[in-house]
Amino acid sequence: MKTFSAIIFSIILFMLLSPGIAGAVNQNDINQELQQGGIIHLPAGTYTLTDSIILQSNTILEGEPGTVITIPDHAGWPAWKPLISGNSVQNVTIRNLEINANSNGNLETPHGAGYYNCIHVVDCDNLQVYNCTFHDSLGDGLRTKRCENIKFHNNLVYRLGHEGFFGIESQYIECFNNRITTRTNSGLRIWNSANVRFHDNVIDAQLDAGGGDPGIQIEDSKGSVGNVEIYNNVLNRTWGKGIWLVAYDSGVSNIQKVLIHHNLFYEIGQSYNIPSIGGIVNDGFQGTRIYNNVFDGVKNNAFRNQAGGQGTVIKDNVFTNTVQHTSISQTATGYAIADLAGANLSVTNNSFYNNENGDAYQTGISNAYFRDPETHQTFSGWTWTGSTWTCKFVKPTELGSIPLTTTIRLRLMAIIYSILYCKVFN
């Protein structure tokens, strides 16, 4: 029995580690299966694409632990040709895939210029992407344009060349339970989109000059952004901003009324080369409500209002240990809240403690508390445990080290090892 089990384990291990195991199946075979509809299951192995996988309506494209989709070195694809493409399709699920877009093998093309997006869909309805790993791309993880009813959840994202998720002119978007490390740009982003929920994500950054900028970016140039809620997220040591609200063109006359609540902003703004870092940086949004968040150890400002900001309410938050920008001297750096645009912010019932240059710049505050929030209760709903901040709405996270989740392949190897050597051998 032991010998038989060991043989099975060796075979499975060989399949997991062999890059050519799926060589007999290419994107043409996958596309033929997709045209038939239903569930298209890709067994473990590496699938090296020479053309895009084309999604069809009413299909599920799924893998299993060890299923990897990639492209060859020097693939030579034109811009805007993604690994997985969908146009005018509906009722599509993508799950349990690892997408390695091989950025190191295609260094002749730039980051963030439309090359090798992992998944790019246009004019689609009812798309769900979950339990996937996206890494080593020159572009986005999932990019949607003019789409509705999008769910992006329980994914692992790192070393991309643009956004983890990017929703353009799309509606009814929900991104949750994702683990994202930014590179080149942001983790989650929308542009001219509405009815959006970003919640229960953990976002940090690749801590070097390529580490990107905001963890979350909300962008309005057409006045169409609305009904956006950002909550229960942990933003930890982002390279640039934690959240960036930016409006221009027709967006500046819109009252977006974004809700930002029950998020943890921890040591945000590690960058030495981006001037306007901060926990939340506002460049033109109006009517934002910021409540029940913790801003701890943020660099530059916890909330920095650079344009717009009328009707902003900041209530029941903790602002502690704000420090100056690491290397770029600028107006109001080191204050918890800075209103550079003179928007007459409403700042009430917040806790301020140990902010390097002061609590508020060019804005009044009322009903403030100035005791140490690590040892005194606040209205924020957050409690310091001695090593991390906890809130009943937010999954506990140890801040000293948030490890990158192990890959699907390594998880499967551990499971197989456990089954064979603990259950079978005993």
Report the uncertain regions.
Answer: 1-21, 405-426
- How many extended strands? 38
Mean pLDDT across all residues, rounded?
Answer: 89
Instruction: Tell me the number of structural domains.
Output: 2
The largest pleated sheet is described as: 12 strands, parallel
Distance between the termini: 10 Å
User: What does the overall shape look like?
Assistant: elongated
Number of helices: 3
- How do the strands line up in the largest sheet? 1-4-7-10-13-16-19-22-25-28-31-34
InterPro entries: Disaggr-rel, PbH1, Pectin_lyas_fold, Pectin_lyase_fold/virulence, RHGA/B-epi-like_pectate_lyase, SCF-Subunits/Alg-Epimerases
Organism: Methanosarcina spelaei
Domain Rhamnogalacturonase A/B/Epimerase-like pectate lyase: 31-203
Keywords: Repeat
Question: Would you give an account of this structure?
Answer:
It comes from Methanosarcina spelaei. Residues 31-203 form the Rhamnogalacturonase A/B/Epimerase-like pectate lyase domain. Residues 227-364 form the Disaggregatase-related domain. This is Right handed beta helix domain-containing protein. The protein starts with a helix and ends with a helix. Helix 1 (2-17) runs antiparallel to helix 3 (408-424). Residues 1-21 and 405-426 have low confidence and may be disordered. The protein is elongated. A hairpin with a 4-residue loop joins strand 37 and strand 38. It folds into 2 domains: 26-177, Single-stranded right-handed beta-helix, Pectin lyase-like (Pectate Lyase C-like, 3 Solenoid), CATH 2.160.20.10; 242-425, no CATH class. The relative contact order is 0.08. The strands form 4 sheets. Strands 1-4-7-10-13-16-19-22-25-28-31-34 form a 12-stranded parallel sheet, with helices on one face. A 12-stranded parallel sheet has the order 2-5-8-11-14-17-20-23-26-29-32-35, covered by helices on one side. It has 426 residues and is mainly beta. Helices cover 10% and strands 36% of the residues. It is built from 3 helices and 38 strands.
